[in-house]
Design brief:
Helix 1 crosses helix 3 and helix 3 packs across helix 7. This protein is about 35% helix and about 0% strand. By secondary structure, it is mostly helical.
């Protein structure tokens, strides 16, 4: 069984294995196909039309499937690698360990946000951005610029306490757990993290930054925790609803995958907090 670990607990060897596997997917072109998929869906998902990956109920199961496929590609490179998660309620500053030069890098050039250190710096010659909103070929970040703060544990717990998964009109104006976690309402959890990082993470091509996977692994973990806290609540809508994916509707780009197939993450992986004797959030 795959175990997803907190990035803050990874050993130097585990960090190196993860970054090497990501770099290999970039070298072979597999990585950029994932970026292109996300870019396509985020730019086409709309409050007033079909929405699959974002702005609707299937935001969480869509990304769970997306991460599962990426994790499977990583394991083709190195079967010991799994996706780490980044708990941004705990590791919430630009000096946190994930931004160190031996992991994701964290030094950005003030005038344009170019990442200057770590394995994904453009100068290292192995990370050219080819799918993006402009022609700049380098990874960019502006960690914490503009006074934006990462979400707190209290803000997360308030969203986890919401008893209903989603509600009409099933878009970015909806009330309910999904939309508050996605970040269009309330304290803007998921969306605010993208903004705090800045650069490509603030665009539709956000997977250009490898931190994307750790961020979404934590969002996925929060969904799993909400399910544990609210066992009588489930994915909504349960029946056919215009422009959104219901419980048994097919999620593009997959031909036969529905939200119902993704409700139980334990069929695919567990989190290190779920190990016997491990502390709970």
């Amino acid at each position: 069984m795959i175990v997803r670990k907190n990035q803050a607990t990874l050993t130097p060897d585990e960090k190196r294995a993860f970054t090497n596997a990501v770099l290999e997917l970039k070298r072979t072109g597999v990585y950029d196909r994932f970026v292109a998929t996300h870019n396509s869906f985020l730019t086409s998902d709309s409050d007033f039309g079909p929405r699959v990956g974002h702005r609707g109920p299937s935001f969480l199961p869509w990304h769970r499937r997306y991460l599962l496929e990426f994790e499977a590609e990583l394991q083709k490179v190195d079967q010991k690698v799994s996706l780490p998660y980044w708990d941004w309620t705990a590791d919430r500053t630009p000096t946190s360990s994930l931004w160190a030069a031996d992991f994701l890098g964290g030094i950005s050039r003030a005038r344009d946000g170019q990442v200057l250190d770590g394995p994904f710096a453009h100068a290292a010659g192995r990370w050219a951005v080819t799918v993006g909103v402009d022609s700049r070929p380098y990874l960019r970040r502006t960690l914490g610029a503009g006074g934006v703060q990462l979400p707190t544990k209290a803000e997360v717990n308030a969203v986890l306490a919401m008893p209903v998964y989603d509600a009409a009109p099933w878009n970015s104006t909806s009330d309910g757990f999904r939309n508050h976690l996605e970040g269009w309402r309330g304290s803007s959890l998921h969306n605010r993290v993208h903004v705090w990082i800045g650069g490509q993470m603030a665009s539709a091509a956000s997977p250009n930054d490898p931190v994307f996977w750790m961020h979404h692994a934590f969002v996925d973990m929060l969904w799993a925790e909400w399910q544990m806290r609210n066992p009588k609540s489930t994915y909504l809508p349960a029946g056919r609803t215009p422009d959104v994916v219901d419980l048994h509707g097919v999620m593009r780009p997959w031909n036969n995958i529905t939200p119902a197939d993704l409700l139980d993450h334990r069929k695919f992986y567990t989190f290190d907090t779920e190990k016997p004797g491990a502390p709970k959030r």
